[in-house]
Specification:
97 residues, alpha+beta, Rossmann fold, globular
Amino acid sequence: MDVGVLIDAWLASRHVNDRWVVITDIFGGSVNNEFMVRMADGGFMLIAGMNLGLVIELACGLDRLSLENVEQSVEQSRAGIVFCNNLATAGGEDEEF
């Protein structure tokens, strides 16, 4: 089934007072693009670049879903993406956590 048809069915079925955060995997991917063209309809916030830290952060704060809180969650999830090879100590020993 066409993803656009699925999204339209979801948009039509949700309650007008519901607040949603939609998270897609890749900015510019097919699912993200389908949601982007429907953003003018409102009723949801759209985030591209899903990671587990972001999903957990948002799920733990469902009672506080505001634009500001969602933006903060996105920033915090960015900070959680680390290229660990750059953390190696000069002596080559593993750093303890």
